[in-house]
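so my prof wants the structure for this chain in the tokens format not the other one, which i didnt know existed until like an hour ago. anyway here's the sequence
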Amino acid sequence: SLLSVLDHTCTPMGARLLKHNLLFPLQDSDRIIRRLDAVTFFFMNSSLRKELRTLLDNVYDLERLNSKMILGSGNGRDMLAMKSSLACLPEVHTLLEHCDPARLITIHQQLDCLTDLYNLLESAINDEAPISIREGHLIKTGYNDELDQLVVLLRDQKKLILDLEQREREATGIAKLKISFNKVFGYFIEVSKTHEAKVPEYYIRKQTLANAERFITPELKEFEDRVLGAQDRRIALEYQLFLDIRQQISANSNRIQQTARQLALLDFFSTCAEVAYKYNYRRPEVHEGDDIRIVEGRHPVIERTLPSGKFVPNDVHLDQISNEMLIITGPNMAGKSTVLRQTALIVLMAQMGCFVPAETASIGIVDRIFTRVGAMDNLRRGQSTFMVEMSETANILNNATEKSLVILDEIGRGTSTFDGLSIAW
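here's what i got, hopefully its the right format
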């Protein structure tokens, strides 16, 4: 398809924009020329184009990521993808400083680098954040003091216990004082019977054994509460912090959407230039007149299926005076249908702002392209091949204007030669 030939886009946003522009070409010559100016700039500046496309290759689908943040379904991986995309924006902005076409200057002015959102994601989201947002390990160290304390507590609880045990030994003078843990009592201080006289008053008796006493202290009880609930609190806190970050991002959705739009435009223009450079396309002249002149035009899709240089180019000249209608005849496989289709495709490509497969092309803007191509029936609706042909032809006759381009491939093929010739006439 023509889309597959043209689609060398680097980003999903650019691919969608290319398809949209292909389905909805322009009829305003000023807008078409501004697009062609932007494509021409990238065509003429190969090194800048390659540098830009390398940067765009690192951009994820910002529009989709933005939607996920708004809908509340974005996860840690989505935020990392967004951060990676935003990291490219300053370099893209710098590259555009050297662009002079008006369309690219406008993009440069409107491109928001979203530095504040990048800094937020860089400082907050763990570089190895999991897909699930309810299992922790989402937030970086240093972003939230309370979370940092919980992480240290979970990581260093054994060392903290040994430190506390050493402090209690020094405070009480009991060299064999020991802090232990079991599932029934939690953390406790164990002192042998021989040192019972040295136990301070603030120790709270917990259990008496045959040769030892077990105590707790307010400090140890506080430590126990912190450790036993730390994992749950950490996960809950990380989840809440993540929701807050996602809310901050979704609050800036309009800015992200606008930036995604500018990147899509850059991707579209640079892709058109890349395709033109790769396949030897030329810039068309677009005007408000009534004539279409194509010199050495080629079919953009068929030439890709042939070895280089094997496609035989064709000239076409249409106007409203002496060349309003062209009748193309010849044997089977001579290329009649190819000339018809390539003319329509070249006009379509020119009006979407692309370079075209021709040596030169001067395109008067058309308001519609009508086609009556191929033989097919529609039995479900009770329409024979002939009936389908007549319905499509009637539609063309009823709706075509003097600014329309019409291609008819073997009108009347669904009936006898005599009747088909009469109808075509």
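also thought this was worth mentioning. The radius of gyration is 36 Å.
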